[in-house]
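Final report, Chapter 2: Outcomes

The project's central promise was a pipeline that accepts a single protein chain and returns its three-dimensional structure in a standardized token representation, suitable for archiving and comparison. That pipeline is now operational. To close this chapter, we reproduce one record exactly as it appears in the project archive, with the input sequence first and the structure output second.
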Amino acid sequence: MARDDAQIVEDSLAALGPLTVDLGASFYEALFEAAPKLRSLFRGDQADQIIRFVEVLAHVVSNLRATEKIAPILQDLGRRHIGYGVTPAHYRPFKVALLKTLQKQLEANWTPEVAAAWDATFDSVARQMIAGAEAVEPSAS
């Protein structure tokens, strides 16, 4: 990921102030609006899921430049998501929902530059997660 993209993503997330449950709830609302069938993948407590999402988002963004640190974490996350029924095709609606949520939250601060940086960041994260999922032996999933 380009250094400029990492800085833009960090700055735009910081502009939201402290990340809250509201951000996570808005994300899942956008996700289920874009892809209602994905709701069946979420069997646990929605409040816990929202908190985990916000925590992971903050952790990933704060480590964008630490590729050696974040890549194994993302690959493990991809492996774990196999158990939840996530397939590579599911990453697209997640991306749409995340970008829509960020656009709504950032309002006038959502510029073409910010959109492009988040788009590239999501693609980079998704590639790492999918690589981790693909590294799993078929019998292990």
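Archive annotation: The mean pLDDT is 92.
This record, like all others produced under the grant, will remain available to the consortium after the project formally closes.
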